[in-house]
Amino acid sequence: METVILAVVIAVVAVSAAAGLVVTGRRRKQLPAPKAQPQISKPAAPTTVQPPAEPQVGEDAAVSAPEERRTVEEVVLPAQAEAAPELEVPEPTAGRLIRLRSRLARSQNTLGKGLLSLLSRDRLDEDTWEEIEELLLTADVGVQPTQELVERLRTRVKVLGTRTPDELRGLLREELVALIDPSLDRTLHVARHDEETPARPAVLLVVGVNGVGKTTTSGKLARVLVADGHTVVLGAADTFRAAAADQLQTWGERVGARTVRGPEAGDPASVAFDAVKEGIAEGADTVLVDTAGRLHTKTGLMDELGKVKRVVEKHGPVDEVLLVLDATTGQNGLVQAKVFAEVVDITGIVLTKLDGTAKGGIVVSVQRQLGVPVKLIGLGEGADDLAPFEPGAFVDALLG
Ligand code: GDP
């Protein structure tokens, strides 16, 4: 009899607990307060686009969404589970370069492996040193850094006497890392200024010539920031390329970042201003502004970019100006870089398409020419193919 009573009690408790869980699940779903919709009065003013309430789940997310993240409600009510909003979860940024190293190694074999095989020759005569020099120049390391490196290698190899492959590799690694300068500060300044009232998001301007991968990089960078726990607002200030705003908005929607955009061919500075305003209203950590990259004339560029920066700075100083450069363009890219550097104070370089070139030496030459560190590198067209730049991991990938 006692056993029967006990069983009934257990059954009642179990049923109530299950009901409670379902309710909790429902309540939890109602909890997040809807984000404030920005007020838009003038039709010509930039408009703010909110990620749809039910964003489409991308392929990556479908694969990577861990099972344990499902809510009780999703399990109990499968019909609703299908419609549950699920944003993509970008890959963590720590160690990305190591994960993506094969991309680099494939295209950089000529540089790293080439140097190793030349240095391993039985006789290191003048011809061999010339070949080494040529290899470095072909990889866009630049004249001055190439001469410095060859000089140091000559001295160190002499001191070394016998040359085992391991010794040579170690020596070359050391010298290449030194050439890239590991002491440069490659931190991205993306933290909200909580000391101000109201708190103001960090503002990043992404600049560069059309076609270098600027919009793609802005989208990937939003994912990098989201992956590192930041909330992001995107500003589609490239109002000259028709598809740019749509492209950026799609990137934003995938990770829940709002995109502020304006009318086609509208004023980029006004979009950038509104994006920061929206970032402040939302309490976002970072506002990422994709700018237009029409390098028609230096004066034109100066007017345009200069104005964007000036107008945005009505809210407060810009934290980062990231120059996006296409690594495959070699010397041409360096010329572009210099023009941009004369127009705005670049704080970091993003080198894209390093997966498609053997000219990895551009990392060295662009840093030397601009005196600004490479902070991120693009290693493919995939959503998470943008990695924080780490000199050691980069050189390891070069040496295979
Ligand atoms: P924008 O005009 O500078 O904004 O250029 P987009 O962002 O539209 O990019 C131009 C093209 O470059 C697109 O096809 C991108 O997928 C491609 N791209 C961007 N970054 C990389 C990269 O790191 N590797 C490769 N292989 N392609 C890239």
Q: Overview of this structure, please?
A:
The protein has a 9-stranded mixed beta sheet, sandwiched between helices. It is of the alpha/beta class and 400 residues long. Strand 7, helix 15 and strand 8 form a beta-alpha-beta unit. The chain is 51% helix and 11% strand. The structure holds guanosine-5'-diphosphate. Guanosine-5'-diphosphate (GDP) binds next to helix 10.
Question: What hetero molecules are bound to the protein chains?
Answer: guanosine-5'-diphosphate
Number of strands: 9
Helical content, roughly? 40-55%
Strand content: 5-15%
Strand neighbour order, sheet with most strands: 1-4-3-5-2-6-7-8-9
The stretches of 5 or more residues where confidence is low (pLDDT under 50) are 3-46, 51-84
* Structural class by secondary-structure content: alpha/beta
Order of helices and strands: HEHHHHHHHHEHEHEHEHEHEHEEH
Q: Any idea what the shape is?
A: elongated
pLDDT averaged residue by residue: 81
What keywords describe this structure?
400 residues, alpha/beta, nine-stranded mixed sheet, 9 strands, elongated, disordered N terminus, binds guanosine-5'-diphosphate
Blueprint of the fold:
Layout: H1 2-30, E1 47-49, H2 59-64, H3 72-76, H4 78-83, H5 96-99, H6 101-119, H7 126-138, H8 143-160, H9 165-180, E2 202-207, H10 214-227, E3 232-237, H11 244-255, E4 258-261, H12 268-282, E5 286-291, H13 298-312, E6 320-326, H14 331-343, E7 348-352, H15 362-370, E8 374-378, E9 386-388, H16 391-399
Parallel strand pairs: 2-5, 2-6, 3-4, 3-5, 6-7, 7-8
Antiparallel strand pairs: 1-4, 8-9
Helix pairs in contact: 6-7, 6-16, 7-8, 8-9, 9-16, 10-11, 12-13, 14-15
This protein binds guanosine-5'-diphosphate.
